[in-house]
Amino acid sequence: MSVDVLLPSPVPVRFVAEDGTAVQPPTGYQVPEEERLLEAFRRMVVGRRFDRQATALTKQGRLAVYPSSRGQEACQIAGVLALREDDWLFPTYRDSVALVSRGLDPVEVLTLLRGGWHCGYDPAATRVAPQCTPLATQTIHAVGMADALRRKGEDGVVMAFIGDGGTSEGDFHEALNYAAVLHAPVVFFVQNNKYAISVPLAKQSAAPALAYKGIGYGIRSEQVDGNDLVAVLSVLDAAVEHARTGGGPFLVEAHTYRMDPHTNADDASRYREKQEVEQWEAADPLARLETYLRGRGVLGADAVEAAHEAAEKFAARVREDMNADPEADPYELFEHVFAEATPQLREQRALLASELED
Amino acid sequence: MTTLSMAQALNAALRDALREDERVLVFGEDVGPLGGVFRITDGLTKEFGEERCFDTPLAEAGIVGLAVGLAMGGFRPVIEMQFDAFAYPAFEQIASHVAKLRNRTRGRLSLPMVIRIPYAGGIGGVEHHCDSSEAYYAHTPGLKVVTPATADDAYWLLRDAIADPDPVIFMEPKRLYWSKGETSAGDRRAAGFGRAAVLREGGDATLVAYGPTVPVALEAAEAAAREGRDLEVVDLRTIVPFDDATVVASVRKTGRCVVIQEAQGFAGVGAEIAARVQERCFHSLAAPVLRVTGFDIPYPPPILEHSHLPDADRVLDAVDRLQFDDEPDLLHLAGEAS
C-alpha cells in the first residue's frame, strides 16, 4: 500500500470558512445533500440547547456533574448522521449530545451523570455502548464489535469517539493496530478540543496533527475542520463508506474547541486565557452553518425559528423529566454482579435487608 | 477413563468447545500454528481454521479489549495471557470493563468470556513468568476465578467456564501442566463449578488448598498418615464463587485448619479463607487457623525458588503447631507464674 494513500490532508479539510462562505474543498469529498445539512442544523440547535440545559441542571443539583461539549456540535451531530441505525457507536462521557441526537432518551442518557446508575440506556437495543469514562478503552471494544459484525456477515460499521487526550493512552494505539491487522470496519473519530481537562494539546503530543497517528499502523487518516459541519459530515461519510465497503479502518481528527470548562466542577480560567476562548467564539460551528445555509438560500428565518422552538420544547421536556427523583432499589446492588448471585452476595443482601428494616 | 496430562485435558476442552459452539473463538499470543508456548492450543488452528483460533498482535490490553467487543457482539472468546505477569497490561480492561459491564448496564449486556492465565512457579522460570496473581482477580467483584489441580477438573472446569454467562479468570497452575490423571467418562459439567472437592477424608485437621498447592497438601497428608495423623484435604477448585459450605463442614468436623497457597501471604486468598473459617467455625476450632504461603517477596530466581515455595515439610510444621498437645503451653504458663 502506498503511504500517500494513508496520509491525511496537510491542512484540515474545510468546506465553509468561519464567516460562513463556501471555500474550495479538496478533491475526493462530496458536499452532503441539502436535506441532510438542514437536518444537521436542526439537530445542532437542539443539541446546543440540551447541553446548556444539562449544565443548568448541575447548578440545580439535578445532575452530579456534566462534561459539556458546547462548541463541538458539528462533531457530535455529524458523527451521528454519518451512521445508520444498525451501526454501533462507542462514545465517551463528553458525547451526551450525540446520544440524544441518535434518539436515545435524554433521561436515560443523563442517568450516569445524575448518579442513578452507571448506564441508563440499553446498549443492545440502541447499538450505543455505555459512555466510557476510562480513556481510550472503548476504542479496542469498538474493534472487537466491528470484527463481530464482520463475522456475522453484517455490513455494519462501528464508530469510536475519542478526545485528544485519549490518543496518548496505550489502548488507543493497540486499537489502531488491531483494527488495521484485522481490517476491521471501524472509524476512529478524534474530537481534538485542544484540552485534556487543563493540559493543552502542545503538552499532549508532538505530532504535526493527531491524524498522523494512523499512518504508522497502516490506517487511512484525515483531518478536518471540526467546526465546519459540512466538512465533518463529508469526511465522516467517506470514512464510513470506506469501512463499510471493506476498506478497513479509518482515522479522522476533527479540530474543534471545548468552549466550556472540562465539567461544571472545573475552573478553566486557571489554564487558558479569555482571549483564546473569544477567538474560538468566532469559529462557532452553529453560526457558521446557519450563515452558510442562509447564504445558499435554503434556510429561512421561519425554519431557524422553528428549530429554536423545537429546542426549547425539548429542553422543557428534559427539565420536567429530570425533576422527578430517580428511583433506586438498594437490593439492585446485588442483582447485576453475576447472572446468578453467589452465596456470599445472597448473604450480603440479607445483611443489607436487616439494616434497612431496623 | 482416559489418562491425560492437564495440558492435554485443557486442549481437549478447547477442542470440544470449539466443535460444539460456533460462537467460541480462541485467540492470544502464539496460540495459532505454534499451539501456544505451553501447547494448550495445539492443533486448534489446523482443525478449526484461522477464523476460530488465531494469533493476535503482542498487546495484552488489546487482546482483552478485543474479546470484550466480540463478546458484546455475541461471541464467546477464550483468550490466553501467555504468562501471569504478562496479563498486567490488561488489568484496566479486566478491572474496569470485563468485571463491570453486566453491572454497568443493569444486565443488558453480559460478557461470557474466559481469560486463561498460566500462573505460579515451580518450573524454574525467569522473572515475570512465575507470579501468583489470583488475589488481584479474586478481589475484583464481577469476576469468577477458577483454578484446577487435576486433569479431570481442568477439562470440566474449562468447559463450565466457557459455558458460563459471566467472565471467568481461568488460572492454570503451570507446574501441573504435565501431571497426569484420569479423566472421567461421564459428563460432569457444572458438578465442580463453585464447589470445593474433598480429595481425602480425615478427622484430625483440614488442609485447604487450591491449584499448585493441592498436590503439596496431598503429599503432606500422606506423610502425616504415616505418623498416625489423619488429615482431610479440600481442593477449592473455584476461588470465586467460594464454597463456604464445604470448607466449613470440614473444619467443623476436624476442629483444625491449615490454609495453603503458593502466593505471598499478605492480603492473599489464604487470608480471606482463614478469616472466613474463624468467623464461621470459632466454637469448633481447637487451634488458630494457620496459613502456609510463599514469603512476602517478589518471586525469586530459579536457584532459590525451592526455599520460597510451600512444600510438604512446611505444611507438616504448621500441622505440628495446631496444638494437638496443649502441654507446652501449660508449662509455659507455669514458668511465667514462678
From TrEMBL, chain A:
Residues 42-313 form the Dehydrogenase E1 component domain. It comes from the Bacteria. One of its GO terms (molecular function) is magnesium ion binding. InterPro entries: Alpha-ketoacid_DH_E1_comp, DH_E1, PdhA/BkdA, THDP-binding. Keywords: Oxidoreductase, Pyruvate, Thiamine pyrophosphate. One of its GO terms (biological process) is branched-chain amino acid catabolic process. Its cofactor is thiamine diphosphate. This is Pyruvate dehydrogenase (Acetyl-transferring) E1 component subunit alpha. It comes from Nonomuraea montanisoli. The gene is pdhA.
UniProtKB/TrEMBL annotation, chain B:
Its cofactor is thiamine diphosphate. It comes from the Bacteria. GO terms for molecular function: magnesium ion binding; oxidoreductase activity. Keywords: Oxidoreductase, Thiamine pyrophosphate. Residues 4-179 form the Transketolase-like pyrimidine-binding domain. SUPFAM superfamilies: Thiamin diphosphate-binding fold (THDP-binding), TK C-terminal domain-like. Coiled coil: none annotated. Gene3D superfamilies: 3.40.50.920, 3.40.50.970. This is Alpha-ketoacid dehydrogenase subunit beta. It comes from Nonomuraea montanisoli.
